[in-house]
């Protein structure tokens, strides 16, 4: 009789442990699903509401013993420049939205070491326009060659002031 009861208790204990494992597993799956849902909603709102535009522009600079100008408007081409020389290009940024936007400018590639901008990380009010100057300034000891990269003008909605 005692053995039967202890077997029943052991079976009940196994059943309770199995149920706990199943419940823990369900809780884990539910938690992961909720976290995934929250991250998905955040990314969706970020892309729809906050991030408005990323405008990439190629940049090129040739360091040589000859000076030359490139009037290409599809990219920021600084043309040919002597070591120690400076070239300047401009772009216009206009806020075409009905709300203020925050503009930031990123520089990438091997040309980025030579390029600076007249203004970065600023707010544009609706219908405002700003001219940004890009300066490509090389040092006297800059090696001859072609330097390339990209600038990205990132436009975000201003959420808080």
Give structural notes:
With 161 residues, the chain is of the alpha+beta class. It has a domain at 52-157: Immunoglobulin-like (Sandwich), CATH 2.60.40. Helices cover 30% and strands 40% of the residues. The strands form two sheets. The chain has a five-stranded mixed β-sheet. It has a three-stranded antiparallel β-sheet with strand order 3-7-5, with no helix packed on it. The mean pLDDT is 85.
CATH superfamily of the domain at 52-157: Immunoglobulins
* Helix and strand run: HEEEEEEEE
N- to C-terminal separation?
Answer: 77 Å
Name the CATH architecture of the domain at 52-157: Sandwich
Give unreliable regions as ranges.
Answer: none
From the structure provided, what is the oligomeric state, counting identical versus distinct chains? single chain
Strand content: 35-45%
**Tally of contiguous helical segments:** 1
CATH class of the domain at 52-157: Mainly Beta
Q: Taking all residues together, what is the mean pLDDT?
A: 85
In percent, how helical is the residue content? 25-40%
Q: What's the shape?
A: elongated
Gyration radius, in Å: 30 Å
| CATH level-3 fold name of the domain at 52-157 | Immunoglobulin-like
The description of the largest β-sheet is: 5 strands, mixed
Secondary-structure-based class equals alpha+beta
SS elements, strand count: 8
Spatial arrangement of strands, main beta sheet: 2-1-8-4-6
């Amino acid at each position: 009789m005692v053995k039967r009861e202890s077997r029943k208790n052991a079976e009940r204990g196994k059943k309770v442990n199995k149920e706990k494992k199943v419940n823990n597993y369900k809780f884990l799956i539910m938690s992961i699903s909720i976290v995934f849902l929250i991250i998905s909603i955040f990314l969706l709102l970020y892309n729809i509401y906050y991030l408005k535009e990323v405008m990439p522009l190629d940049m090129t600079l040739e360091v040589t013993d000859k000076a030359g100008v490139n009037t290409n408007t599809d990219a920021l081409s600084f043309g040919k420049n002597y070591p120690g020389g400076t070239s300047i290009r401009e772009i216009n940024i206009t806020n075409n939205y009905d709300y203020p936007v925050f503009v930031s400018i990123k520089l990438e590639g091997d040309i980025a070491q030579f390029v600076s901008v007249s203004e970065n990380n600023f707010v544009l009010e609706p219908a405002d326009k700003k001219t940004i100057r890009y300066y490509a300034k090389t040092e006297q000891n800059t090696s001859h060659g072609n330097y390339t990269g990209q600038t990205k003008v990132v436009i975000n909605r201003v959420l808080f002031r």
